[in-house]
Amino acid sequence: LGMSFEGDPGPVVVAGKDGSFTIVGVIVDRYHIYVGKPPQGYKISEVRYNQTVKAHGIVTIDPAADAHRLDIRLALASSSVAATATDGIKPAAGAAILLVPDPVEDDAIDLGIELREAQASDEGRATVSGLLPGTYRITAYPKGTLWGDDPNLRQRLRAGQEVRVSAHQIAPIEVRTLPTL
Fold first, then answer.
1. Quick check: 167 and 161 in contact, CB under 8 A?
2. Helix, strand, coil fractions of the chain, as percent rounded to 5
3. In angstroms, rounded to a whole number, what is the distance separating the alpha carbons of residues 175 and 71?
4. Nearest C-alpha neighbor of 148 from the set 174, 173, 112
5. Dihedral class, residue 130 (left if φ above 0, else alpha if ψ from -120 to 50, else beta)
6. What is the pTM for the complete model shown?
7. Torsion angles phi and psi, residue 11, rounded to 5
8. From residue 105, how far is each of 3, 25, 48, 111, 112 by CA, in Å?
9. What are phi and psi of 89, to 5 degrees?
10. Phi, psi at 156, each rounded to 5°
């Protein structure tokens, strides 16, 4: 388990035998909660701070709270998306395929969490595995496009095609590459 903010090594975690833990040295700030070595195949499925679900594990410590309770749930990440990228006519070899949980959150993109990238094969196919069940948005950029430099990246991710996956499912989807920037 970890908590961090830019430039800080983070607080110290003291684990109990029952799976509970106490975090010592927390200051009022914004944190991204993560598990450094979850059991194989598992990911954080939910983070709650004082009973409120915190999207993408981003928690802001409330200085006015009487107590601070953090609940973390792990779930098996057994889902996949099998995407086929096209240029509208033929397979888009080497396309960059981007997948994010829906709704698309700016904080998750800014912090570099939750955004998954895959490169399409010569046949335009790519698979993104290790996903939690849920709804995602998918978009694709032509080979060689520097999608990270796209000033409209957030909007394009929000407007991406919706794909839903259930536990242990491989969801197929065809996605058309976006015009070159």
1. no
2. 10, 45, 45
3. 36
4. 112
5. left
6. 0.81
7. -70, 170
8. 19, 28, 17, 10, 11
9. -130, -50
10. -70, -35
Using DSSP's 3-state secondary structure scheme, residue 57 falls into: helix
d(CA 67, CA 121): 51
Token pair of 164 as six digits: 């839903």
Instruction: Please name the helix (run of DSSP H) or strand (run of DSSP E) that holds residue 153, with its range, or none.
Output: helix 153-158
98, 176 in Cβ contact below 8 A?
A: no
Query: Which residue, chain included where needed, has tokens 């607080």?
Result: 11
Through-space distance between the first and last CA atoms of the chain, rounded to whole angstroms: 39
Taking only the tens of pLDDT, the chain with its 181 residues reads 455 545 555 555 666 777 777 777 778 888 888 888 889 999 999 999 999 999 888 899 999 988 888 899 999 999 999 999 999 899 999 999 999 999 888 887 777 778 999 999 999 999 999 999 999 999 999 999 999 889 999 999 999 999 999 999 999 999 999 876 5
Q: Write out the H or E segment, with its range, that includes residue 4.
A: strand 2-4
So what's the pLDDT on residue 3?
53
